[in-house]
Amino acid sequence: MRIGVLSLQGDFAEHVQAFEELGVEVSAVKRPEAVLACDALVLPGGESTTIGKLCVRFGVGEAILDLARRGAPIWGTCAGMILLAREIEESDQWRLGLMDITVRRNAFGRQVESFEADLEIAGVPEGPLRTVFIRAPVITRIGPQVEVLASVEDKIVAAREGQYLATAFHPELTTDRRVEQFFLRMLEQSNG
Ligand code: GLN
């Protein structure tokens, strides 16, 4: 089982390292063939408009959509969550549109560009998780098949829809690997 981390831009190296710590096979991927060789894919944090443009330029977006059609689990963090969304408020930027959610970019405002919070996340056992938010988006609408996993105040910051996982925060920037383990369980389930 091989996890791919999309490595066009953003903090992909931290995601690779997080999965290496868990002893799973993981690689940084940026070409369509490399994406298609994965069993699951992580879309990192970074700048969603930049990652989107590079996805189009290098044909990687099509490869990710093919991978999704094969049923592979895909996890987007922060900018990656924006790329997974079907709708992005006040933006026509390119996106994969795989998840039936609407997101709002930079939703916590300029005054709080980044912050940390202890969050209970549905499906993540053993108590609250320390989460790091950096110019984070939030989910402002969910489709009927989407399960909310975590909220900050009244803002949805983690959700799952079948094979797709979206987190507005950055588990790869902490030492707690429980969200990575959650994603690995999604991969195990998808393989029956
Ligand atoms: N604000 C960024 C965007 O809209 C996301 C920030 C991040 O990934 N840390 O793409």
Describe this structure in words.
The chain is an alpha/beta fold. A hairpin with a 2-residue loop joins strand 10 and strand 11. The longest helix is centred in the C-terminal third of the chain and has 13 residues. The two termini are 13 Å apart. The mean pLDDT is 96. The site of glutamine (GLN) has 11 residues, from helix 5. The site of glutamine has 11 residues, from helix 5.
Detail the topology: elements first, then pairings:
Elements: E1 2-6, H1 12-21, E2 25-29, H2 32-36, E3 40-43, H3 48-57, H4 60-69, E4 74-77, H5 79-84, E5 85-88, E6 99-104, E7 114-119, E8 129-134, E9 138-142, E10 147-152, E11 155-161, E12 164-167, H6 178-190
Parallel strand pairs: 1-2, 1-3, 3-4, 4-12, 5-6
Antiparallel strand pairs: 6-9, 7-8, 10-11, 11-12
Residues 45-48, 78-79, 82, 105-106, 134-135 line the site of glutamine.
Can I get a quick summary?
This protein has 192 residues and is an alpha/beta fold. The protein is 28% helix and 32% strand.
Report the CATH C-level class: Alpha Beta
Shape: globular
What is the average per-residue confidence, as pLDDT, rounded to a whole number?
96
Low-pLDDT stretches are none
Question: What's the structural domain tally?
Answer: 1
Indicate the structural class: alpha/beta
CATH superfamily: Class I glutamine amidotransferase (GATase) domain
Structure keywords:
single chain, 192 residues, alpha/beta, Rossmann fold, seven-stranded mixed sheet, 6 helices, globular, binds glutamine
